[in-house]
Model the fold of this input.
Amino acid sequence: MSERKNINKLFQEKFENFEVTPDEIVWENIESKLKEKKKRRVIPFWWELSGIAAALLIGLFVYNNDSKTSLNIGNGIVNQEKDNSEINGNSAKKASEKTNNTIESIDVNTKNSENTIDVNTNKNNVQSVIVSNNNTKTNSKNENKSVAFKTTRNKVNASSIVEKNSEEKIAFQSSKNKKARNKKSSVVSENNSSLAVTSDFKERIVLSEAATNKESNTSIANNNTIDKNKSVLNANIKTDETINKKIDSIKIASVEPNALEELLKEKESKQITEPKLNRWQVSSNVAPIYFSSISNGSPLDNSLKNNDKSYSANNQSYGVGVNYALNKKLKLRTGINVLNVDYNTNGIVYYKTQSVSGKLANLNPNMMGNSIIIENLSNVTTPFNKFEQKSEGSLNQKLGYFEMPLEVTYKVLDKKFGIDFIGGMSTMILNKNEIYLQSSDLNLKIGEANNLNSVHFSGNIGLGFKYGLFKHLDARIEPVFKYQINTFSNDSGNFKPYMFGVYSGINFTF
Amino acid sequence: MTIEQLINDCKKNDIKAQEQLYKQYAPKMFSVCLKYSRNYTEAQDHLQEAFLLIFEKIHLFEFKGSFEGWIKRVIINYVLQQYRNKTFLSVIDEDVADEVEVEFDDEISIEFLMKIIQELPDRYRLVFNLNVFENYSHQEIADALGITVGTSKSNLSRAKMILKEKIENNTGSAKMPSIK
Done:
């Protein structure tokens, strides 16, 4: 049956209470995007924290390295001392061979334990064979060694061999010291000269004065590397073979101090200069970034490579950094920056379509993007008409990164006003990848690029100018050029991006 | 849970609340999107993006007036924005009668009606929808679409003529229902 009605009424009545449930996928998409948004808010926060954590870790690592070197020196001392003792006591060759072995072993702990054992055996031999004078010398020297690791030789002398074992290490320092003094009084006269020099050793290892004297002698030599120790050892072994003890040992003791003193002084002077250098700096960064390409390609699609690109002026980067001074001239620095850049590809036309063909090669379209065809304006031959709804516009590609630079700066001028050369690289971690379709009245996200690497690098080179505001505070401005490497996983369309930023900020030195 | 509570939870970005809100309003809003869009897929795209916009802007809703009305406005505005570009070509104003009578079969399906709405050129469709379903005046339509009142009037009558013709000949380009 047919009816006649006002067309408005027909539609209004028909569509009253009309509802259609959309596909499940719609909510799923919404949900994933909502979650994505939440995630995005969280990520930068974590990154900042991890940046700080990384800085702390690096700090700890460097600090540990320093303390390790001092440990090594300690070991060296012990080894050398042993050598001396061997010389004095004319101890068996076996013992010296053992020490050789221990020196070769790298691990500090194992060295310590082995050393003490070796020494014990030496003493045993010594005691059984040698005259009292010899004993005292060897003992006292041995003690020096043992003190570093807190093993007691003195006991060995005084009493049974068994006691020498490692248990005694901690407990018997004082007794050792006393004994050492006694013994030394007979031998040590030459050593007195070196007393002053040894003071810094005392700080590290608690020794009796007498003991330190001897140690100082040896320790000076010990500053050198293990290799030296070995050579000394070999020499010692030879001397071992010559039977006369006292004379040899005394000679060695009296000759060494001069050369050794010099070394020690050198070391002291180093220690004085080092504290003056404030190694650590924290810095803040903010920079306008000029993002561009040295070639006129397009990473979006080959057909757009000749299109005009415009690079927006409001790209920027900000972040924090940590600097560590390797020496007066060289600084190593890292940090974390947030970086956002975008550019436009102009001269395109777009229109809506159902068809799937004609997509940009490197665009992963979202649902909106799926139904839009984008073409180079110059490719379009058909006249615009109202059915196809073609319109002009531009493509805006937005890229965001977390940047972690690793750079070296070299000071060429260091006054109140300073100049640095800067070189290094950055690791860029992609955190934003969006492509927008823009026209005078449209700004529509149509998808993301599918050819961006999630991590890429840049080579950095620049100049740094600083001006000292206060004792610990510098203002800084650094024009830096960053050439992007490996930005695109494939098909970069001959687009070779670079960034030029004028980073400014403040350095705090401590 | 009252709608107020639900909205407040949505303001806190509670995903469960957002889902519930979506499920509650999606069918009604999808029918709006279908009428304003060219086809089913496009309508779904619009629904999706518009709901994201709703969740983003929901903190701006101050419980003045109906929430459904607010949602619908957001959605319609979003869809209009998608078509509000310079591709609108101005059409020469014509004199057309405002009242259009149409003769139709009683059995005429809503799917067919939807189809022929979607087949209208973009601006005809928008003007028709705004006028017929939202009761916008021509001035309001002109403001919303950035066109003149005259253009709005002429678009509306052109739209109605096209629809009338299709209904009377029952000649949607496809007779298959377009709702799914």
Q: What stands out?
A: Residues 57 and 149 of chain A are 29 Å apart (CA to CA). The mean pLDDT of chain A is 66. The longest strand of chain A covers residues 391-414.
